[in-house]
Amino acid sequence: MEIIIGLVVAVLIVFVLYNLYAKIITRRNRALEALAGIDVQLTQRFELIPNILTMASKFMEHEKELFTSVTELRTQASENYDKADPAAIKDHLSASSRLGTQMGKLMINMEDYPDLKSNETLIQAQQTYNEVEAQIAAARRFYNSSVTELNNTIEIFPGNLLAGIANSKIMPFFEADEAVVEPINATDYFK
After folding, report:
1. Whether residue 158 has a cis bond before it, omega within 30° of 0
2. DSSP-assigned letter for residue 58
């Protein structure tokens, strides 16, 4: 009887550990799928940027520094990275976030140029860009939700013991660029 109880307990432990292992793998794959979804949206953004810059540069000669910044960030954010390396993922997402911030500045600066505001091709490009940004925001929410589930599973015992066996690591969140979350001083606008 003791042997049967011992076998039942051993089978139960193996079953629980296997389920946890499977949960870690499933959540890791879901997070990687979400990351791939972000990359699809970011690629759409990367493809739009040269067209927008080309059209805008014809009218906005005084914005060369902003164009340079956007171009450099686009190059940095569109580089290949190791999806198994949390540090590489974090760098990629950070560059993408900074690019979004700079593109937002560019879009705001375009409002100061009446010839740009009436250019139908640019208006269409801006609308497409805004749609892509909305899709990036949705993909960011899905990714961060998936990463939360994965990280919680990995950090909580006994998942922390099985994470190495499952070849899973804590993944970084896709956070907003620091410039976006800085507090705004209203007095700067009423001088």
Report:
1. yes
2. T
Which two structure tokens, joined as six digits, stand for 2?
């003791």
From first to last of the 191 residues of the chain, give the pLDDT tens digit. Answer: 889 999 999 999 999 999 999 999 999 999 999 999 999 999 999 898 888 888 887 777 777 788 888 989 999 988 899 988 999 999 999 999 999 999 988 888 887 777 766 778 778 888 898 999 999 999 999 999 999 999 999 999 888 888 888 889 999 999 876 655 455 454 554 44
pTM (2 d.p.): 0.77
Please give the Cα distance from 6 to 129 (Å, whole number).
62
Round to whole Å and give the CA distance between 124 and 97: 23
Angle between helices 86-110 and 64-77 (to 10 degrees): 150
